[in-house]
Amino acid sequence: xxxxxxxxxxxxxxxxxxxxxxxxxxxxxxxxxxxxxxxxxxxxxxxxxxxxxxxxxxxxxxxxxxxxxxxxxxxxxxxxxxxxxxxxxxxxxxxxxxxxxxxxxxxxxxxxxxxxxxxxxxxxxxxxxxxxxxxxxxxxxxxxxxxxxxxxxxxxxxxxxxxxxxxxxxxxxxxxxxxxxxxxxxxxxxxxxxxxxxxxxxxxxxxxxxxxxxxxxxxxxxxxxxxxxxxxxxxxxxxxxxxxxxxxxxxxxxxxxxxxxxxxxxxxxxxxxxxxxxxxxxxxxxxxxxxxxxxxxxxxxxxxxxxxxxxxxxxxxxxxxxxxxxxxxxxxxxxxxxxxxxxxxxxxxxxxxxxxxxxxxxxxxxxxxxxxxxxxxxxxxxxxxxxxxxxxxxxxxxxxxxxxxxxxxxxxxxxxxxxxxxxxxxxxxxxxxxxxxxxxxxxxxxxxxxxxxxxxxxxxxxxxxxxxxxxxxxxxxxxxxxxxxxxxxxxxxxxxxxxxxxx
Length: 503
Prior knowledge:
The protein has helices at about 5-10, 15-30, 45-50, 50-55, 95, 100-105, 160-165, 170-175, 180-195, 240-250, 285-300, 325-335, 345-350, 365-375, 430-445, 455-465, 475-485; strands at about 60-70, 75-80, 85-90, 110-120, 125-140, 150, 155, 200-205, 210, 220-225, 230-235, 250-260, 270-280, 305-310, 315, 320-325, 385, 410-415, 415-425, 470-475. The chain has an 8-stranded mixed β-sheet with strand order 8-12-13-20-19-18-17-16, with helices on both faces. A 5-stranded mixed barrel has the order 1-2-3-5-4. Strands 9-11-10 form a 3-stranded antiparallel β-sheet, with no helix packed on it. By secondary structure, it is an alpha+beta fold. Strand 2 and strand 3 (about 85-90) form a beta hairpin. The longest helix is centred in the middle third of the chain and has 20 residues, at about 180-195.
């Protein structure tokens, strides 16, 4: 820690801000612009270190944020950090000149600089750029969190989760390894797009602002359009619009969908999230089950990780995924027969086991709560859960064996979390209307997550929709899985947070 850093350690934030603003004025008085327009970079830090044998003694131009400064009178060492890592700088008054070195004396951790100089190696063996020219590119006013580091070991890390999520820019600067998660996120999105493009799916875009919301059981966010003088909803899913496209003659469509649901927040839920939905005509949920399994396998292959460790569980994507019916799981884990279960029998089961419930819960709410609490955590290895009750699946076709109590729907669970929801899509307009009207009645009884009746969607189905398989995948959860993160906030650059109270 140099003299300036020691002085700031005992200063208030207001004092530090004032001191740094004074430095900006002094730098301008010296003839330097603290916020210039551009700087030509020839090499990133990683290239300098990896190509040292080729670059030794040659001139390079690098730029980055000052992360360490060690002044020694007429010379100094510093480290700058760019998008690829860190590189050491050696700055000498004799090399960069008196005026530039005097300006360097006014710089702080967090300032962004550019350096032109020769690549060398110090007596301790560290690859270094020996500066011939120093350019200030951005003078930092607000100090970075203090993080101590020695011999590659970090002390006093910037680890407060809420501060890291709220001020992600600081998190990325001080904890650069966080960038790796978002680099991998981008790779997963690219691999996802390549997977569907290679199978002749058409990528489309559908409305985010919708006059009616639908396609999922969730509460929406509501906004108002001034020119139209009408309320609109942020979409909870894009399913009903993508099915309209199937009706219109596109046989394979997919969309990266930013969805918004006005619901609770936990490690698996954020009010806005990214999903992909895809629909293919003339196929069913068995076909889509195989496609989903191949999708997860393709992501693992693209990342070079056919086997991963997640939450203490080893997942091998090269192995076939298990397939279990919901009825079998309820019978095995809860000794409940879904073929005859109703609200009363669910309540009796809950009373016997002292499981708290709301007497107003309907069949679907009971089933969801019991499944979430007692079955979902047990599904650690990739497992397709098949054939959901019709009462909670208003957009899926009934089973082809004639058992109309259940529908052709599956969800994929891995490590106790849901990743995929899929149907043999209902294309009987009469049945579809009856089911959505039933959802409307549930809404009237107080179920805020029940679906709405969309007359234009019914009109589209009445025009004629071919047999279709449809799937929705929560991409944020997929990214959590493949990056080893336990919270959705760790894979979102800017997760939802309670508004900060600024003084």
